[in-house]
Design a protein that fits this description.
With about 350 residues, the chain is α/β, with parallel strands linked by helices. It has a single domain, classed as Arginase, Chain A, CATH 3.40.800. It contains eleven helices and eight strands. An eight-stranded parallel beta sheet has the order 2-1-3-8-7-4-5-6, with helices on both faces. Helix 2 runs parallel beside helix 5 and helix 10 runs parallel beside helix 11. About 50% of the residues are buried. Its EC number is 3.5.3.1. InterPro entries: Ureohydrolase (IPR006035), Ureohydrolase_dom_sf (IPR023696), Ureohydrolase_Mn_BS (IPR020855). This is Arginase 1, mitochondrial.
Length: about 350
């Protein structure tokens, strides 16, 4: 089903329920049952994976994949909703091995586990609107974090998911985090096209909520006056590609997280030049090379408590799935950064 059709399916369903004179209370009960079942499935998967890790011993933190296939808050294309299964497929693709660059083995459950996806479309089909849906995403993340030593590595999805994920991480840990955000765009509009939850407004919601102490945005090359003004308003450290050669040494030697609850990393795949990752909704030339990104991530000093990889659009990828492999490599190397 196409993104636009999927986005209106739940509206038609609720209209039919209303026409059939189904009470609002009955609809609410049905929605709650679907949400409870969704959270229960993630909770039981997380418990099972965490029990195995605790039995194996010797692990302080393990990256745990959580898919959030949400695309309807995109301002252009909704294809990122289809990304999580494509990323998983690429992670385990036989064209490469299971080792990260520093030698951690992804097929070791102490390094990487997977608790499945939040069933976004199924929940929306029940008529659940975004305020509540964002709460479900946050609760799903907290459910993973409740099971030591799991740490969420979230597969998007459009960038709107970062707001409920960061909110959950901050609330669960009991304080703000430092955020390293790699992106072509600052995603800090106050309210883009009338949508408070737009993928272009996620970091405005994060900063308003006090969930981040420092926000570093790297790779910017499509930024408006509002984006710069909002950055100044919230004290964001914005690093644009036009000055990257000057900023490179600093960005490849970042030390974050001291005095707060840890570091959150958000990687929008379009931070990369489209020569490396054409499968994105917003193609913006002049971006980071893949090695630039890895140098920033691998040299980052700090306790990475959670991360996301977002905005991969399989519907715009090459036939051989090049961008899927790029997104998978980002996930693999973030796994190495999180797990210990």
């Amino acid at each position: 089903m196409g993104g636009a059709a999927a986005g209106t399916k739940w509206i038609h369903h609720i209209q039919r329920l209303s026409a059939a004179k189904v009470s609002a209370e009955a609809v609410e009960r049905g929605q709650s049952r679907v949400i409870d079942a969704s959270l229960t499935l993630i909770r039981e998967r997380a418990k099972l994976k965490a029990e195995l890790l605790r039995a194996l011993g010797g692990v302080k933190a393990s990256a745990s994949l959580l898919g959030v296939p949400l695309g309807h808050n995109s301002s252009f294309l909704q294809g990122p909703a289809f990304a999580p299964p494509r990323i998983r497929e690429a992670i385990w693709c036989g064209s490469t091995n299971s080792s990260t660059e520093e030698g951690k083995e992804l097929n070791d459950p102490r390094v990487l586990t997977d608790v499945g996806d939040v069933p976004i479309q199924e929940i929306r089909d029940c008529g659940v609107e975004d305020d509540r849906l964002m709460h479900v995403i946050s609760e799903s993340v907290k459910t993973v974090m409740e099971e030591e030593p799991l740490r969420p590595l979230v597969l998007g999805g459009d960038h709107s998911i970062s707001y409920p994920v960061v909110r959950a991480v901050s609330e669960k840990l009991g304080g703000p985090v430092d955020i390293l955000h790699l992106d072509a765009h600052p995603d800090i509009y106050d309210c883009f096209e009338g949508n408070n939850y737009s993928h272009a407004s996620s970091f405005a919601r994060i900063m308003e909520g006090g969930y981040a102490r420092r926000l570093l945005q790297v790779g910017l090359r499509s930024i408006t006056k509002e984006g710069r003004d909002q950055g100044k308003r919230f004290g964001v450290e914005q690093y644009e590609m036009r000055t990257f050669s000057k900023d490179r040494e600093k960005l490849e030697n970042l030390k974050l997280g001291e005095g707060v609850k840890g570091v959150y990393v958000s990687v929008d795949v379009d931070c990369l030049d489209p020569a490396f990752a054409p499968g994105v909704s917003h193609i913006e030339p002049g971006g980071l090379s893949f090695r630039d990104v890895l140098n920033i991530l691998q040299n980052l000093q700090g306790d990475v408590v959670a991360a996301d990889v977002v905005e991969f659009n399989p519907q715009r990828d090459t036939v051989d799935g090049m961008t899927a492999m790029v997104a998978a490599k980002l996930v693999r190397e973030l796994t190495a950064k999180i797990s210990k």
